[in-house]
Design brief:
This protein is of the alpha+beta class. The protein has helices at 19-22, 65-70, 79-93, 153-159, 184-188, 201-216, 234-249, 251-263, 269-283, 293-307; strands spanning 2-10, 28-35, 39-46, 49-53, 57-61, 101-113, 131-135, 138-142, 146-152, 172-180. The protein has a 10-stranded antiparallel sheet. The chain folds into 2 domains: 2-216, no CATH class; 224-284, no CATH class. It is built from 10 helices and 10 strands.
């Protein structure tokens, strides 16, 4: 389930190797850049991997390890594939890359769904400690350390004019990614995270579980927008009307409105908290509720992907 992995190996892990002299000879499309304060930097490519070289380190950055090893990033790397990919990098660069420090990890999987991927976005609500942003190319949840993404993988391949594997042709493919972008040791509670740790089975299982848990930390919105339930209660009738408004405008839009009211002093902190709780309560999916087929489908397929 790995995709992009950023790593950097230090000079102290490679005694006797002159990075600036030896490593560029093993790369393609090599360019050199001299920085007055930071010394010389040399950039190049190892297959489809971006490589940056300085006097004290060799870094692989902003690249899909999956695309490097498997030829495309439609697929994702299993635990055993990751080991082979790291070994291949080590052999190609003549460096012990299993010792490299990992600075970014993307855990991802393709989910084949019944409907167009955009049909699911309105029912994925807010997530604690994340900013939710729906864009033309997908749904993003971001904070300073991590990012959760949902987007159409088949659509992305078509835009980039890249081939689509036969398994996914003419199917609705929703990609869900969890990206660890900063302070990985703190996030994953490890004294160090090396490339060799990526193919440790226990660590790999922990990341897959985290990928699943981060999905379930997103509030799922009641998708029963069409069928209003008969009720003699004016309060319940009003709440059903309010729910339809929330789904039509989007839960995040209501939350932003409450934030603006609070920041401008129109309402106080306690009132804002009550408003947010009201929106969350109304839009929360009822277990076994009718009209929630989209969410039930996605929940089950995320669980299945994690098990596999």
């Amino acid at each position: 389930m790995y995709d992009n992995i950023d790593t950097a190996i230090r000079k102290e892990d490679c005694p006797g190797v002159d990075f600036l002299k030896d490593t560029p000879n093993l790369l393609d499309e090599v360019t050199s850049q001299k920085m007055t304060q930071r010394g010389e930097y040399i950039n190049g490519y190892l297959g489809k991997l971006n490589v940056s070289i300085s006097e004290n380190r060799v870094s692989i950055y902003n690249s899909s390890l999956c695309k490097y090893y498997l030829g495309d990033n439609f697929q994702t790397l299993s635990c055993s594939d990751t080991k082979k990919a790291i070994e291949q990098i080590s052999d190609s660069l003549h460096l012990p890359f299993h010792l490299a420090n990992v600075t970014r990890i993307d855990v991802a999987q393709n989910i084949i769904v019944r409907h167009d991927e955009k049909a699911y976005y309105p029912f994925l609500g807010v997530a604690p400690y994340y900013e939710r942003l729906e864009q033309n190319n997908g749904l993003y949840y971001s904070n300073s350390k991590r990012q959760k993404l949902f987007y159409g993988k088949e659509h992305e391949q078509k835009v980039k004019r890249q081939p689509i594997p036969e398994l996914y042709q003419n199917r609705n493919t929703l990609r869900y990614e969890l990206r660890f972008r900063n302070r990985l040791r703190e996030q994953l509670n490890r004294p160090e995270i090396t490339a060799g740790l990526l193919y440790d089975e226990k660590f790999y299982r922990e990341l897959v579980k985290r990928w699943k848990d981060e999905y379930f930390n997103i509030q799922k919105i009641n998708s029963n927008i069409v069928n209003m339930e008969p009720t003699g209660s004016t309060k319940e009738f009003g709440e059903q009307i309010a729910l339809i408004s929330i789904l039509q405008m989007g839960q995040s839009q209501f939350m932003k409105t409450v934030d603006v009211w609070q920041k401008t002093g129109a309402i106080d902190k306690v009132q804002a908290k009550r408003h947010r709780s009201f929106v969350k309560r109304l839009s929360k999916v009822k277990k076994n509720g009718e009209g929630n087929g989209l969410i039930a489908e996605l929940d089950n397929k995320i669980k299945q992907a994690a098990r596999v």
